[in-house]
């Protein structure tokens, strides 16, 4: 009788292999790029005021954390509040565009055409109207993140097939039941796609607003560090902005898995 191999023993023999399989390939790529960056800076003896090594940037983050963190909280507040306002405006507007012929013909084309206006050119006007407080930053975040949410929501709500709607009406479903049980589940993947795209735009909006007029925030720190030729501090602020953006995107991805768990199972089965 053939002996059964001890899989537990085999697994314990390769802890490094198990660890390597658990870490996403993108992390290994990032580590390789940072090592290459560090080696090239030290080998070519590039001055810190041109391109600091990653180790120098990390040291700057640690030593300057007492100023980075409060300003990161300011930028984070602008991003989250502006994003929440954009969702609160865009989703009801998208629903009204789908259900109202007047809104679809009179308002929706204006929304699409408004995207041809460069938001950076409008930002100085917002400063004149709202001052240098948090209001113009919130408005710019809304202007940038609003469009993908409303467009994707409209596309998702219109994705329900006429056959499905006829079936729902033949079963006696009213308008609210058709929306809740047929249109909304079909639209959720589109909605979350727009929300995830809007996360990156909201971060860009907050930083652009702080570039134009602010006395705090990570965008403000980048400007001050640039004026002092402190490139390591600029990189430290940029890294914090990137971490905030990736964390925000990861939060939306987690919410998507919670809200529409069937989508992941469909994708894994190769049907989606």
Automatic annotation (TrEMBL):
List cellular component terms (GO): plasma membrane
TM stretches of this protein: 23-40, 79-99, 106-132, 138-157, 187-214, 234-255
Provide this UniProt record's keywords sorted from A to Z. Answer: Cell membrane, Membrane, Plasmid, Transmembrane, Transmembrane helix, Transport
According to the lineage, what is the superkingdom? Answer: Bacteria
> How does the entry describe its membrane topology?
Multi-pass membrane protein
Compartment annotation: Cell membrane
Q: Which residues form the ABC transmembrane type-1 domain?
A: 68-250
**Pfam short name (any one):** BPD_transp_1
One GO BP on record is: transmembrane transport
Q: What Gene3D superfamilies does the entry give?
A: MetI-like
> Where primarily located?
membrane
* Family affiliation: Belongs to the binding-protein-dependent transport system permease family.
By its UniProt entry, which PANTHER family does this protein fall under? ABC TRANSPORTER PERMEASE PROTEIN HI_0355-RELATED, ALKANE SULFONATE ABC TRANSPORTER-RELATED, MEMBRANE SUBUNIT
Q: What is this protein's name?
A: ABC transporter permease
Q: Give the organism, scientific name.
A: Alloyangia sp. H15
């Amino acid at each position: 009788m053939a002996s059964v191999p001890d899989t537990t023993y085999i697994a314990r023999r390769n802890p490094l292999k198990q660890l390597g399989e658990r870490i996403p390939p993108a992390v290994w790529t990032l580590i390789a790029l940072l090592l290459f960056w560090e080696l090239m800076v030290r080998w070519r003896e590039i001055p810190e005021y041109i391109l600091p090594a990653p180790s120098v940037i990390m040291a700057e983050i640690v030593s300057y954390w007492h100023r980075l963190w409060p300003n990161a909280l300011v930028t984070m507040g602008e991003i989250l509040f502006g994003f929440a306002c954009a969702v609160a405006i865009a989703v009801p507007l998208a629903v009204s565009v789908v259900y109202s012929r007047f809104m679809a013909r009179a308002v929706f084309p204006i929304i699409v055409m408004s995207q041809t206006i460069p938001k950076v050119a409008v930002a100085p006007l917002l400063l004149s109207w709202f001052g240098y407080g948090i209001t113009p930053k919130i408005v710019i975040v809304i202007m940038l993140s609003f469009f993908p949410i409303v467009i994707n929501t409209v596309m998702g709500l219109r994705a329900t097939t006429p056959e499905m709607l006829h079936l729902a009406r033949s079963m006696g479903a009213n308008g609210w039941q058709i929306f809740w049980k047929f249109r909304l589940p079909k639209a959720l993947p589109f909605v979350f796609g727009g929300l995830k795209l809007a996360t990156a735009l909201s971060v860009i909006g907050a930083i652009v607003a702080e570039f134009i007029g602010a006395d705090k925030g990570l965008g403000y720190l980048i400007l001050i560090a640039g004026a002092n030729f402190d490139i390591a501090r600029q990189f430290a602020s940029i890294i914090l902005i990137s971490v905030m953006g990736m964390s925000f995107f990861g939060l939306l991805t987690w919410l998507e898995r919670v809200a529409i768990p069937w989508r992941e199972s469909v994708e894994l089965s190769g049907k989606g």
